[in-house]
Amino acid sequence: MLGALLYLRLTSLKNQIISRAKRLRQLKYLLGALVGGAYFYFLFFRNFGSSSGSRGSQRAAANQALAALPTPEALAQTLPLIAAISALLLLGIVILAWVIPSNSPGLRFTEAETAFLFPAPISRRTLINFKLLSSQFSILFTSLFFTLISNRWTFLGGNALTHALGWWFVLSTLNLHFTGAALTLSRLVEGGVSPLRRRLTVLGGLIVVVGLTLGWVWRDLRGPDAEDVAGIAPFTHYILGLLDHGALGALLVPFKFVVGPFLAPDARTFLISLAPALLVMVAHYSWVLRMETSFEEASLAAAEKRSATLASVREGKSVFATARTQARPGPFYLRSSGRPELAFLWKNLLSTAAYFNLRMLAIAAAIILVGSKWFLTGATPDIRAARVVVGMIALAAGAYVLLLGPHLARQDLRGDMPRADLLKTYPLRGWELLLGQILTPISILTGLTWLCLLAAALTLQPTGRMALTLTPSVQLAIVLGITAVTPFVCALQLLILNGATIIFPAWFQSTRAVGPGGGGGIELMGQRLIFVFGQLIVILTALLPASLAAFALIFATQWLIGAPAAIALATLVVLVVLAGEVWCALWWLGERFDRLDVSSELRP
């Protein structure tokens, strides 16, 4: 019976590969596959086919660049420390699997598998083996991908084969542990153990282990001195003294067994480390097989939920549309008559999380203002260092929201495009509909960016010569200028993404495809890369005129009217330029949407 199930899995894999190869006949998938293949080539395989002369020159340049780094022998001395830290990370992952488990059942079956395999005369052990065997396909591909990344870590030793097998041991053992943990938790729930009691038990055990280890460290281990930090070897020895002894050291032993094959520096060590790694894997496999827990009902419920989610996504709805939501008041009072764009803003705000509102924005701003008082009044070195760290984190978060936030805030035409036939029946011009659709993500992204800007402005205070140039008035002018420009930059970003949806609707439908045969692949990754690169080029082109005008105006007028006034005047010019670009883009894309033929463009 297991042979027949294996034949079923291999046949499904073959058919999936054939279907993806056949869709390369379409130009959009072929271009995506070429871009995705080029990405992998330049990232991983570019040097494999180079000539011996070029490889020699590249190796000489690399050796010269690495001359100042520690020698491989010195780095090899850190392998025990790397093993201990890796085991500690695996321990943290395992603890999270028990404290915050996944909502999915331990064994996930597709809709077809639940329909055909559950009624069939197949034993429970065979079903478990079938799912564990099915998971090995994805684990093997993931292991090969991770090997391409880690094969450049020459200080680890070994070769591509040992690294691939090492990743396979790590991923397979984690998969078995997650499955066993999910089945065990299901059994505990069936026995009446509450989630709170389970979390308290796991955390209590962790506290006991950490407490015993800290007690041992406090009693026997001395603090680090100058000799312990004099080099890699003494520092490694000192840290290992913290991780290899006491209760924590005993707890990390099986995790070290799991990462042993991957960290083996040579073939002999690799063969020796295979036995304990296999022992841990066999113990997990036996644990999963012996769990007498009913997984059929949970698998059926999960399959139905997944089917409903896929149907909602294909219809253009949110992935959370199938979940039950509680009624909540509208984000603001919507009059019976008025601008139609406000109606779209009201509707799309209801589809977002409840905490995206003006009250939460004001509360967050108040917390930042009150919290920054301590940073502004403190003058100790620790407080100054913390001030810089907080400011840099705020700047990084603001840049992330401004650049990548439009890809995540999808409460616009990208979510409603599958219902474009209904949108086109509205008595609205195209630019009005498009403006109303992008108002919600503009509001959310602008508010989050303003919070990050407020935190950065209050914590990053210039010192030394920079303080002479960036006076308080100049800082205020810069902050107010960025604040005023932010909504228009967000609008341009969103117009680019929504414009791609209108101009290339078939490409957009394929890149968001879900379900078997449509949710992944190198061709879809290549299509997403094309969209990302295209967006970057367009936004840089759109911001270039305003940036050049602002810099030229500041350089020409700061000597006459002062830096703050010059920055304010430049901000006004930037706003005029960006507002014109936003209006032109709205008008042009609105015309394109009015002429969009839904029946021919949105074919699957």
What does this structure look like?
This protein has helices spanning 2-22, 27-45, 52-65, 72-76, 79-99, 111-116, 124-150, 160-190, 195-220, 232-243, 246-259, 267-290, 296-314, 340-350, 358-377, 381-408, 413-416, 420-423, 430-459, 465-469, 472-503, 505-511, 522-561, 563-594, 598-601. It is mainly alpha-helical. The chain has two domains: 75-301, no CATH class; 339-601, no CATH class. It starts with a helix and ends with a helix. Residues 65-72, 313-324 and 513-518 have low confidence and may be disordered.
Low-confidence stretches: 65-72, 313-324, 513-518
Apparent shape: globular
Biggest pleated sheet:
none
Structurally, the number of domains stands at: 2
The average pLDDT is: 75
Q: In which range does the helix fraction lie?
A: over 70%
With helices defined by DSSP (H or I, 4 residues minimum), what is the helix count?
25
Task: For the structure shown, list the relevant keywords.
604 residues; mainly alpha; 2 domains; 25 helices; globular
Topology, please?
Layout (H helix, E strand, L loop, with lengths): L1 H21 L4 H19 L6 H14 L6 H5 L2 H21 L11 H6 L7 H27 L9 H31 L4 H26 L11 H12 L2 H14 L7 H24 L5 H19 L25 H11 L7 H20 L3 H28 L4 H4 L3 H4 L6 H30 L5 H5 L2 H32 L1 H7 L10 H40 L1 H32 L3 H4 L3
Helix pairs in contact: 1-7, 2-23, 5-8, 5-10, 5-11, 7-8, 8-12, 9-11, 11-12, 14-19, 15-19, 16-19, 16-21, 19-21, 19-24, 21-22, 21-23, 21-24, 23-24
How do you describe this structure in short?
The protein is mainly alpha-helical and 604 residues long.
